[in-house]
Amino acid sequence: MNATNVSRRRFLETSAVLGGGLVIGLTLPLRGALAHSKGSANTPPVQANAWVRIGPDDTITLICHRNEMGQDVHTSLALLVAEELEVDVDKVEVKQAPVDPVYVNALLGAQITGGSSSVRDAWTKLREAGATARTQLVAAAANEWKVPAADCTAKDGVVSHGDKHRTYGELAASAAKLPAPTNVALKKPTEFTQIGKHQHRLDTPAKARGKAIFGIDTKAPGMVYASLEQCPVIGGKVLSVDDSKAKSMPGVRAVVNIGEGVAVIADHYWNAKKAREALAITWDYGPGVGLDNAKIEATLKEGAKQDGSVIRQHGDVDAALKSATKKVEAEYRLQLLAHATLEPMNCLALVSDTGCDIWASTQFPQGAQGVAAARSGVPAAKVQIFPQFIGGGFGRRLDVDFIGQAAAIAKAVPGTPVKLIWTREDDTRNDFYRPASYHALRGGIDAKGDLVAFDYKFASASVTNRMFPGVTKNGLDPLMTEGAIDLTYDIPNERQRVVIQEFGLRVGYWRSVSHALNAFAIEGFVDELAHAAGKDPVAFRVTLLGKQPRQQAVLERAAKAAGWGRKLGAGKAQGIASMESYGTHQALVVDISKTASGAIRIDKLTYAIDPGIAVHPDQVIAQIQGGAVSGLINTLTAKITLKEGRVEQSNFHNYQLPRMNQMPKIDVVLMPSGDAPGGMGEVGVPLVAPAIANAVFALTGQRVRTLPLADAKLTFA
Length: 717
Fold this sequence. Notes:
With 717 residues, the protein is an alpha+beta fold. Helix content is 28%, strand content 22%. The strands form seven sheets. It has a seven-stranded mixed sheet with strand order 10-11-8-18-15-16-17. Strands 13-21-20-19-14 form a five-stranded mixed sheet, with helices on both faces. Strands 1-2-3-4 form a four-stranded mixed sheet.
C-alpha cells in the first residue's frame, strides 16, 4: 500500500489486522501549524511514515500522537523511534500530531492520551517506524553505491559503506521513493543502547526557561478574553439574564448566552471577570438541585442489593462461605473527588469564514474537534485542533466541555480569537468528578487459616456510559472492573460483581480510574482476612501468589526493602498493599508514626515496581512519585460534597492537596523483568490508600473503611 492507492478506511482495516502495527509507505497530509518545519522551501522534509519525518538539513521529527501532561511522553516515545533509527534521542524533535485516525490509540479506540497506555500502544509501532525509516535509508544508499544493503551500516544519522557516507537528510528523498519493506527486524532488548538507560527529559530546557507553551499561555493577535458564569447546579441552564450593567462596564465587547451559562467577552481578562460578576441571571437548576452526599450514598448502597454483572467467577462461593471456619464481612466506601489540575480549564478559539481553530490543553483531540464543530456550526473537516502542553490532566482533559464553550462563545464574534479562562472556583465546581463508590465484601477462612472464599460486589456510576456508551455491554464497563478483573490472588472460590448505579451527578475518569476504588476495598479487606486468619499480612498474600511469580517477587522485595517484620519502636507501624495495574506489577509498604500530639505522620512509602521494560527509568520513578501524591489526595482529606445540588468546595483552602511538609520520603525499587512495558502514569496511585489504612490499623487497632481518612476523625501531621 502507498499514499496513492490506500484509502483511510483501508489503512485502518489493515492496521487492525496487524494489531495496530505500522503500515509502511503511507504519507499523510499535514494541516495547519504541523505543516511547517525546518528545511529549504525548495526541498521540504520527507514524511518517511506516519510518525517519522526527515529534513534535508538532517532534522529528524517525531510526529507525536500522544499529548504531554507531565508524564514525559515526548522523551519516551522519541526513544522508541531513536533506538531503531540509530540516532541519539536528543537529535529527535517532537511535533504534535494532528487529529487523524492513523493516530488512534489501539488500546483505547480513539486518539486519546490516558489509561497509562502511551508507551504500551506505541511499543511496537514506533520501533517499527524507526526501523522502517532506517531500512529504507540504507536501501537508498546501497542503490546509489550499487552495493548490498547488508554491507552498509546506519549509525548516528549517517549511512556508511567503507569510505562512502551519506547523511539521513541527503538520502531521505530517494529513500521515500523506494517500496516499503514488508517486515523489519527489531532490536532485542539486549541490543538496546538508549531504551532503559538514563536520559534527560527532552522538554526540560523549554520548561525550565519558561518557553514551553501550555494552553493557558496561548495568545493570538487581536485576542480578547471571556469569563463564563455557569449554573451553580451542574446540568442547569439559563432562563433569563439582565446584562445591562455588565455591558456598560469598561472593555466589554459582548455578552453571550450559551445555554449552560453566560459569558462576558472583554479586552482583558479582569474586565471580563468583573463584568461577569455584574450579571443578573435567573436559572433553571434542573433535576440535580436536590442532590447531596447522603442521597448519593443511599443510592449506591441500595444499588448494591442488585445481583449485578459478573466480573469473574469460579468455584462455589456460597458453599465455601457456609462451611468456612471464620467468616468476615465488610463495607468500604470512597468519596467524590475533583481533578484539581493546577492549570484550570481554558481554551483559545477562533471561528471565521474559513473554519474553526482551537488551541487547548486536551487529552482527546478527536473529541475536541467534534465538540468544537457541533458548537461553532463549522464542519468537523474545517476544525483544526492545536494541542498544547497540559498543566495537569489526570483524566479531566479527556472531557472537552470547556472547548465546546469556547467555540460557542467565539462564534458570537467571528474573526476574533477568544480566550476562555475558568477561575479555580469554576474548575472545582464544574468538574466531572471521580465517582463515589460502595463495596460489599465477604470472605471465608478455613481451619488451617487459608482463604477459601472471596465474594466482592462494587456499585458506582459509569463514566464510560456517558462518554463511550457502546463500550459498556451486559452491564460491564471495562473501566470499572480494573483492579478487580486482574486480581492476582489465587482463591479457590471467588465471585466478583459490579453494579452500574447512576446517582445523578456527572462523573469522569480520575487518575487510575477504578484501580484506586477497587484497590482500597480489596487490599483493605485482604488485610482484614490476614488478621482474621492470624497470619502476617505479607505471608498471607504470598501464599495466594503461587501462580503469579512477578507479583510475588515485587511483594517480597517491597517488604524486604522496607524492613518488614523488624521490631518497630513505640508509636510506629507499617501497612502493605499489592496489585497489578496497567500491566505493571507493584507492591507498597507504608511506614507511619504517631506524633506527641496524637497526629499520624506518614514517614515513608516504599514501592517495588516491575514495569516489564522500563523505557525511561528516571521517568518511571517520577511517575510513581507523582502517583503517590495523587494517592495521598485520595486518602487524606480531599472530598467533594454537595448541598442542594451545589458543590460546596471552591478552592484549595477547602479542597486540600498534600502540602510539602506532609510529603513522606518515597523510595522506588525498580525490578524490570524484561517483559513488554506496562503502563506507568497512574500506577503509583491505587495502593497508597489501602497501605496507609492498613498501617493505621496496625498502629491504632482502628479499621478504616471509608475515604478520606479524615472522616474517621484521624488527624495527619
